[in-house]
Amino acid sequence: MADTSVNYKCPSCSAPLAYTPGSGSKIKCEYCEAEFTVEELEKLYAEQEAAAAQANKVKDAKIEKKQFEMEAAGGAWDAEEIAILKAMTCSSCGAEIVCDNNTMATECVYCGNTTMVPGRYEKQLRPDMVIPFQKNKEDAKRAFAEYHKGKWLLPSNFANSARIEAIQGMYVPYWLFDETIEAHGVFSATKTRCYTDGDYDVTETDHYRVTRAGTMSFYNVPVDGSVKMDDAWMESIEPFDYTQMVPFNTTYMAGFLADKYDVDAEKAYPYAEERVYQSADGVLQSTVEGYDSCSRDSLNVVQTAGKQQYAMAPVWILTTKYQDKPYTFIMNGQTGKLVGELPVDETKAKMYWAAATVIVLPIMYFICKWLWLLIMED
Amino acid sequence: MKRIFTVFMSLLLLLAFTMPVMAETTKVKKVTNTVTQTTKQPESNATLPNNLADFSIYDMADLIASDQEADKLLDKLNRIEQKHNVRVVVMTVTDLKGKDIKAFADDTLNKYYRDEAHNNGCIMMVVCPSVRKWAVTTDNNMRQRITDENGYPAIRDSFMDNLKANNYVGAFNDYADKVDELLNYYEKEGEPWDPANAFSIGGFVIALLLSVGIGYLFEEYLRGKMSNVSFVGEADEYLDRNSVNITEQSDTFLHTTRTVTKRSKSDNSSSSSGGSSSSNGGGSGSY
Prior knowledge:
Chain A is an alpha+beta fold. Chain A is built from 7 helices and 14 strands.
């Protein structure tokens, strides 16, 4: 069941190679400082893989001659386990690594090297694009420290006791949808005027039926393709800068974890469609001008052209623990935008509520007393 | 003839000796005299007696039906007058002869009730039931204690309900009580009563509720800052603004709705005369 994994080693000194965030299409060895382009590494590894395949054939032929009796040891994996688990050999230290079906790249628990799992890609679409990491681990730590600041309800000892337990760079699968749409909306709008007629206040409201239709295009509307990643969290770290997006190449994944998609494009599309629908509504409503109020009666959106791309987007995942409860934070590996939920000190929350009430009360009292006097005079 | 002359002179002398005695007790007896007097002769400014200042209640329209009520009201007025060294007068008239009731009240107060003895001021309430008008007038000393801006409206509001219900005795008592209350306030605080300075329970309750609400919103705001995870919901970031092409625009008028509401008005027609006269304050109105 073991499979061969791939990690990039320096052709010069054999040290593990990792992509340095923000280094463009070049990879530099941290140990001997040799520098290689993505294309050079791809060519070298294609040659190595061909040689390794030939060597395996010879090795397998030798093993066939000397089979051991293995049936007595251990039990049999059931079908469900076989479907989920996958074992592979770390190409750096030779240890066996177990991972699940969605893992594209993982970290070897023995030598710590990040290893890609080629077998994972076989029955999957190859990503079209990749957004390389621009932020490194230190950036993520700084963003996390910065995120604490100004949080009045943060438990006093959180900053001291909560240590980052794990921080991992990961490529998350995304579907990017391009859509050109025709939108047709009907709105109810009103114009209101008020005037005085003798002893009477008169309010006249003119009602209008407003129709707007138009075409518009959206590019690269992202929907995350991973069930494991919460949609709200992944939307929260948007947007990504697509000008830095490049055609997919496994070299960019060196040094990072990665998941393959487990939500296909067909399942992901309704999320993109809903977001496009809401934006189309906003665009059409923004053209309804000169009215005092406007509300949507109906909106029809028809897609006239569209396509999707499969892309990998960079994310830093930070895990911390406070009072035995884990807290996870996610940072956009390209823009540095960090999102997460901090613990709330409930005692502090109540105190701030009470303090705000006490501070506001005198001001509100004078305002209300004045209003009360006006009411009583009427 | 000589006997008749002697008897007549004796009667005159008797009357001359008894008058000062009656004058000593005018403030107690006056009401009965007034009631009797009113029923017999219709009033006008010209017909008011020269000793009108002796009367704290001058009820020519006979609105105070019973002597008991009159005595009780008079006691109250006398007590207030002595306590605060002021004149507090109630007058009713049957006919104004076309004269403005406020002007009549001002003239009467200035002519009959101003004196050095009561140097803390005078206040008088005049009611004319035939035209259903009322007036409250104050002199300048009283205006410093009961201001036209705050004190007078408070007095007016205190008696209007009873006045509208033709409960005149109730209205006069309300008037007296409010005058006493405002003068007490002045003497205690050293400044005229101003509702803006008084503690408002209604205002406090509303302020407390609003403050608790604002405190809660502030706490929710702080709680919201602890997380920045949220759905985006739209795709505005990914819209190519140059691609937007509006192909159809039509605005169709459907109909007009019209709502008419009567403007809120004060439920009485009283008007403050605080700035209308340099020597008198107060105001007047209808009921």
